[in-house]
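Following up on my earlier thread - several people asked me to post the actual chain instead of describing it. Fair enough. Here it is, all 283 residues.
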Amino acid sequence: MENNSFKIMIHKMLPKGFISRVFGYTSLIPIPEKLMEKIILWYSAKYGVNLEEAHIPAEGFKTLNKFFTRTLKPGARIIDPDRLSVVATTDSRVDMYGDITDDSILQAKGVDYSLRELVPSIEAEKFINGKFITLYLSPGDYHRIHTPVSGRITGFFNIPGKLFTVQEFMVKGLKGLFAINERLITYIETDYGAVAVCKIGAINVGKISLSYDNSVTNKIFRSKNEHIYDEDKKPVVEKGDEIGIFNLGSTVIILFEKGMMEFSELKFGQKVKMGERIGTLLR
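Reply from S.P.:
Thanks for posting it. Predicted structure:
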């Protein structure tokens, strides 16, 4: 615990925004083909990237950003076909899931945080006493984010914040971490209830972008911005459709309205693939 406290103190002192911006800009610099091949092979071996399933452009990956945000070959992921299934939004690790107790969400054993602080909007009221799941993406995971359900996107909320690491020592040691860090939230309405996909920023996550709206991307000067679409402008999404992109790994928290779903028997720490069933919508 003392060691974790020291690591947290040191991490708080780091210029996380500056480091992340430098990393983000560096990832956009074209790299010679041979050198890029060596970097990708080293990175893939270190972090367990499965290059066999990645779609590699004919010209190769010209920048680190292109590699980090790679797409997959057709058929590399199967979206659970049951119309009542709720699927994983990402290739990720199940860190925590369960009930939202009034306004309280469990961050780690013995550590909780506020739903209303995570989503500082009237939209948060939809998820009081609902359910949540926290999914952690490692640096080697596929970094695109998909919708867990079919429905209509009602809006998004871009919230500037800190860029603390989301590694285990910080999750266990810094109360309210996910409500402190930068986040980009997508609101989805379904026939069964409301869903929010909260994409959490972290150090060296140079950018979080939305696949359905080009007006939002992380920039040097960011401001809090919640946008609710007009009724006739709400993007329609099918379960498994892409809705966002991370650079490197981070965390996704999915919120579900009370009474709309139940989770499958998941184990804490288990790995899930995008499109795998993680729950069931209730009739």
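The chain has a mean pLDDT of 88. That should answer part of your original question.
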